[in-house]
């Protein structure tokens, strides 16, 4: 078979496998956040301690993407997906061990290493890029990015699985899922025939990617779009408990709805970017995010007003994540896609690390209000809107 025939035959299968691996990895990455209320009550945590606990896995999942993206350029997605999932599985079990022992310190340490599961994002973007032509890469990266729905699965099912099967067995099942999908990926996944290993030393390759202006420009935008999604996905159970007094399962259900809305909007953002350009889609995303954050400050009544507000916020954030990586697919040099993806993905993860800490630090317990944290989101979203429209001037023709 020719390379083109192999591409046509393998695109769908490999995109589906990559999306599945990403979703299961993100479930594992987010396994602490849906139980944050449980840990807070069990360990008598302050708002700051609770915020640090749910945000810690995000840190490694963010910074680790830089190395994961560079290694993907060398070893390919078929190797890196199974390696990272197998490396993550033991830490899911160790988190359960720490929770059983009631040790906040161990939860932080094992949660830190659990962040390995979050690095698979930087593997999947260059992997699926190599399978698709440029006009369809927005669609491909958008579909793959829908694997971030693993956070929705975790938010919805993890608290319920704890009720159905128990705390320890729930973590065992998540770890088994990681191992099973790792084996499936190794057996069925293939790198694109158009992909070739880049054997340049990792550090100079990363330095080269960092010298590209587009790397930092899109890192800023992704830190707002994906960072906002991660921050809400991890902190929303706590927010809903503090502001609306929902219990663990009810907060998890609503967080899952938020994540699903963002997941559905991500491929839409990629498709719209293929058609209208990522600049326009990103602008709509950031402006919409600012508007909806202002509505959230007003604390609309449950269920329909508040639910509609958070769903619209999720949709705007999801559009932005799809648009930014459609921009990466257009502008990153082919031999540096993995490295650029790793850096941009790391920026997105770091964008999700700090907001929960800010929310915890600025929470007004007397009024049950997060006004300061949400006001900061409005400011940065407006800044991202302005920068996306007028800040990336040197690439305007290509991006359109």
Topology:
Blueprint: H1 3-29, H2 36-43, H3 47-75, H4 77-101, H5 104-114, H6 121-129, H7 137-145, H8 150-165, H9 167-188, H10 202-210, H11 213-244, H12 248-276, H13 278-297, H14 304-331, H15 337-362, H16 371-390, H17 396-399
Helix pairs in contact: 1-4, 1-6, 1-7, 1-8, 1-9, 2-3, 3-4, 3-5, 3-6, 3-11, 3-15, 4-5, 4-6, 4-9, 6-7, 6-15, 7-12, 7-14, 8-9, 8-12, 11-12, 11-14, 11-15, 11-16, 12-13, 12-14, 13-14, 13-16, 15-16
Coarse morphology = globular
Please name the CATH architecture.
Up-down Bundle
Give me the secondary-structure category.
mainly alpha
- What radius of gyration results from the CA coordinates? 20 Å
The CATH H-level homologous superfamily: MFS general substrate transporter like domains
Low-confidence parts lasting 5 or more residues at pLDDT below 50?
Answer: 394-400
Average pLDDT number: 87
Total count of domains: 1
Give the H and E element order. HHHHHHHHHHHHHHHHH
Distance between the ends: 35 Å
CATH topology, by name, is: Growth Hormone, Chain: A
Overall strand count = 0
Number of helices: 17
Helicity range of the residues? over 70%
Strand % is under 5%
The largest sheet is: none
Q: CATH top level? A: Mainly Alpha
Structural description of this entry:
There is one protein chain. With 400 residues, the protein is mainly α. The protein has one domain: Up-down Bundle (Growth Hormone, Chain: A). 81% of the residues lie in helices and 0% in strands. The chain is built from 17 helices and no strands. The chain has helices at 3-29, 36-43, 47-75, 77-101, 104-114, 121-129, 137-145, 150-165, 167-188, 202-210, 213-244, 248-276, 278-297, 304-331, 337-362, 371-390, 396-399. Helix 4 packs antiparallel against helix 6 and helix 11 (213-244) packs antiparallel against helix 16. The chain is globular and about 65 Å long. It starts with a helix and ends with a helix. Mean pLDDT is 87; it is low at 394-400.
